[in-house]
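hey so i finally got around to running the thing on that chain from the lab meeting. sorry it took forever, my laptop kept dying and i had to restart like 3 times. anyway pasting the input first so we r on the same page abt which one it is
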Amino acid sequence: MGNYNREKGIAGKWTVPYAYIMKNISILGSTGSIGTQTLEIVREQKDIRVWGLSAGKNIDLLEKQIREFHPKYASLEEESDAKALAVRVADTDTRVLSGMKGMLEISTMQEIEILVTAIVGMIGIRPTIAGICAGKDIALANKETLVTAGHLIMPLAKKAGVRILPVDSEHSAIFQCLNGEEKKTVEKILLTASGGPFFGKKKEELGNISLDDALKHPNWSMGKKVTIDSATMVNKGLEVMEAKWLFDVKLSQIQVVVHRQSIVHSMVEYQDGSIMAQLGIPDMKLPIQYALYYPDRRARSYRKADLFQIANLTFERPDPENFRGLALAFEAAKTGGSMPTVFNAANERAVAEFIEGKLKFLEIPEKIEHEMRTHSLISRPNLDEILEIEKEIKRK
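ok and heres what got predicted. didnt touch it at all, straight out
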């Protein structure tokens, strides 16, 4: 094995040929969209060792993953599910855990270098913090971690000397466009948005949107929650908050640009007027792989962008009047403190109720705004306060 210099969080040089180095990872949310695509990369590249897998309730898929990738630990949300899985995989060497304790174990394993946080929701915050404290680089796909606790996470990562490597396509694009440039020369971050399936529609046209309609994203294949967030443009608001913390920029330096083709994944404008962009087909495996192998680029077999076939790229202004979720996200980010947590938790609850048929599509931003207007702001919440705010909103 080669030696890896983690001093000050900067990647050093391997002392043996790169092809012989085995990456060691754990994945939180291995049965979800990002988790399964991460495992597709593991399957293709053959030089990544999976030491830990965690999932919510998908016992069948997690069993298949255990049998293929042979992790040391696997974890499920409920203890009863974990006991059932343990019986099913008793012929393997994988130990089955459950709950938060299981996720924390998987996040802090001595053997791993990178923790992939592909789990959806604020449940990902504690294991991410634990991974950072244990000296693990974080391949971050969990938006809620930075949205609600960015003021805790980024200083902690700096102190621990670990890297936060963005997995979202937009943040990966920005990360790549900033590579090698001086921070002081950045004028603006241009965060692209597909606009979702309803961009261009007015409120009166959105009143009777069904769940099936909201899940028909024009470009991306994602989980239900993220797809609905894209339809409301709440997802882009969450990404704005993430970008603020990831790249240490002012909110006024972030501009959302609707780009319907999802070929330009984001851009950075510099003081001299230059704009750098990262382009590629809508494929989440590209930013996932970039995070896993950073700072190296690894070849892979996939369809590449054909600019002649694409022909035209368009850029439009967002519509915060008809898509209130985006405007409320900027408001929450500007207010700061505990308000982003309120925004996120209220959205999680509202989306869950929309999926269950208890809310209409346009009631999602209405519920978010109600919670924001009735919240008593905490200027700098600690982790316990952040998680208690989430519990309180969900209890309502």
